[in-house]
Design brief:
Layout lengths: L11 H13 L4 H13 L6 H11 L4 H17 L1
Length: 80
């Protein structure tokens, strides 16, 4: 049976941004919120072993290497 969720004290500015996002996506606010929640629920759950295996797969040896990789990914994303 579906569960009803409620979020209290949402700032007006956030509520307005969510309404605008819903309109851009041709959804009701309820539909947009459901989409956001569904996407959040689909994020992969990583355990420490999976993280370790990913580090090994990427061949990272030091924190500087991982920081450089994150910086490169971020900079590429910002360029659009």
């Amino acid at each position: 049976m579906p569960v009803t969720l409620s979020i209290k004290s949402v700032p007006d500015s956030l509520a307005e941004r969510l309404r605008q996002r819903a309109a851009r996506n041709h959804r009701s606010l309820q539909g947009e919120l459901m989409t956001i929640i569904e996407q959040a629920g689909q994020e992969p759950q990583l355990d420490i072993q999976a993280v370790y295996e990913e580090i090994e797969r990427l061949g990272l040896k030091t924190s500087n290497e991982s920081a450089a990789m994150l910086r490169e990914m971020r900079d590429g994303r910002n360029r659009g």
